[in-house]
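User: Fold this, then the next.

Assistant: Folding the first:
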Amino acid sequence: MKTSELGTVAGETVDMKLEVVVVPVSDVDRAKHFYEKLGWRLDADIAAGDSFRVVQFTPPGSQCSIFIGKGLTPAGFASRSVSHCFRYSRPRAPSLSAAVSR
């Protein structure tokens, strides 16, 4: 899977980057241990009560991370419903200071 593709938004070409994939798991600690053993970087482990926990990992050399946890999505373990987060970047317009200095 590519992590960057070109697409169009409102007729403009934009760069789309896959930033995060949410992966439902049945056992957060077991999944965390699995990704740690793979050598993935642990970016965050945040809990809020007993019903919410998010753990973020990034594979070595990747610009895309995964979220595993509890209460992240209504999809259950092994669900075919996986969430993705894309970042869209439009070409930058010249800044006002650049336009004035010309």
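Now the next one, as you asked:
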Amino acid sequence: MQVESSTGAADLTLNTADRTTDPPSEFSSPPENGVFLVVDVTFVGTSGQFDVSPGFFEVQDAAGYVYDAYLAGFEPELPSTGVIAPGSVRGR
């Protein structure tokens, strides 16, 4: 899928999506809704600089409920960075 901002654009690929009840570390909180949805994504810059951050994500379920991103520890973590075309970044 193509994603755009005022400074650039990127192709976003969902590599995998997995559910787990296990927190990413012993110091993490358990999932608030019973399960973590862990997505592995790749951004490939197609023009300019596209800013990426795990905090930009949210998930909407079939009933229309929206869930914010959980920003802790599933490896490899998606970094908060700018992807300059034709560069890429991948993470969870």
